[in-house]
Amino acid sequence: MKENTKKITAMVLSLTMAIGMMTGCGSGKDSSGRKNDKLTAPEFNGNVGDTRPSADNEAIQSEEKGYYNEDVDIDINTEEYNYYAENQFLSVAEHPLSTFSTDVDTASFTNVRRMLENRQNIEPNAVRTEEFINYFNYEYEYPTGDDKIAINTELSDCPWNNDAKLMQIGLQAKDIDVQDIDSNIVFLIDVSGSMADANKLPLVTQAFAMLAENLGENDRISIVTYAGRDTIELEGESGANYETIASTLAGLTAGGSTAGAAGINTAYELAEKYFIKGGNNRVILATDGDLNVGLSSEEELKSLIEEKRDNGVFLSVLGFGMGNYKDNKLEALADNGNGNYAYIDSVEEAERVLVTEMNGTMFTVAKDAKIQVEFNPANVAYYKLVGYENRLLEDQDFEDDTKDAGDVGAAQQVTALYEIIMTDTKADSDDSKRTLKYQDDVEYPAPEKADETDLDKELLTVSVRYKEKDENESKLVDKAVKLASYVSIDEMSENMKLACAAAMFAKTLGNSEDKFTMAEIRDYAKGLHLDAEELLKMIAIYEEDYENSAINNQ
């Protein structure tokens, strides 16, 4: 971006950010208006409404720059979360198949991080274990050939169950060159009165300004706001006109009630009007989820989004704020709209989601991705899926291409863990009846048969179905896991150690029966070359201010 553009950008964004100063506004476009590989974003210096003693503020700002902290009165807290009972062990004899939808959402992790940063009571229903696990990046092998997803597995001991083994499944999506893929993006922004707080609309506008910096002349941006009514603030603007986009964002103010359904309809109409064939067509909703006028129930919102998701326009949901945050509604929107869901608690998180990991957030490579694990009763007696309680599917849904499931972006990962209890008892076999790979008396499905000698060595088979972005017929990839792949807990990879630490932390804060000390969790997260910094920070906060205290029992 030219120097005068930098000055204009800093001026317009400062109008909405009385709480901080915008600096270092680099450009993501070259002189021709196309996107560069190097992505830059404005910086934010400051900390808002911190609830800790003022004597500590200077150190807090230095160590936790950019986090918005507010003193929220728990007595008037109207946040909403769905309750999901923790998965239990299932018998392989009765339930040989385990089927669930992929999930790349991370909102639960950052939302709970906000609670910890503010020293609030931790809402157990806000904790979704799979989103803690999937917040982190692992070192998985990428797919080869025409495949868009590769399956990685590891088998070791379970740190929290001496009677079980633990299996990690890691899906790695193909990375693609997005430089020549044009984007048609609609920013759908809640400007109702509940969005007036510093950690809501001002943070929203700064987050979208960072994303807009990295667009080019062939990209199109529209901005729709909704409160008492929906308003088109900007329509089909070229990404090269950053000053226009930034000044429009800077001029937004909050006030009025919330008519979210009308705004969603308008946003989809604009996305369809400026639809780019073969491009990235997406609505990005930014809200605290308080949709209190019009279609406000989860079922009504789900029905609305389901009507729109088959037209090639994807949905990303960004949650903001606290006190009246409606996680249940936002999760329902993202889960049913072919999109992803993130909670933005800081400028740094906005940069991570919309700049650093923009390809994964914005460019889908595999849609309706489902995982099905078939367990071999000769070697496995019981299993338990860790997390994914709200992503479970019926077994027959796996081969049903009309069944909606999760979407995976460029280079994104999906990680899941299973507790597995082994058996020394072999099931009877009768090849004349065999329809499952390992069992005889279940009619679904009917895969190709493998040599019986090889089957005895196998623990399970992981199968993944997904559709290419612009296709409606799914593709299948699978991988058998053999007993010989087991490694002891001392040989456990860093991938599995980090996933274990994230799962153990989530279990401790959430609705799980399993609880751990922070020292036990830290043993798996410390000393890794993988980036576990955010988890270690949260562990330290919990250890100092929550562990062995009454703060979570008030």
From TrEMBL:
Chain ranges of the VWFA domain: 184-362
SMART domains: VWA (SM00327)
Origin superkingdom: Bacteria
Family matches, as InterPro entries: CLCR, Uncharacterised_YfbK_N, VWF_A, vWFA_dom_sf, YfbK_C
Biased composition (Basic and acidic residues): 31-40
Region of interest: Disordered: 26-63
Gene3D superfamilies from the UniProt entry: von Willebrand factor, type A domain (3.40.50.410)
PROSITE patterns assigned: PROKAR_LIPOPROTEIN, VWFA
Residues in coiled coil: none
PANTHER family: CALCIUM-ACTIVATED CHLORIDE CHANNEL REGULATOR, ZINC FINGER (C3HC4-TYPE RING FINGER) FAMILY PROTEIN
Protein name listed in UniProt: Ca-activated chloride channel family protein
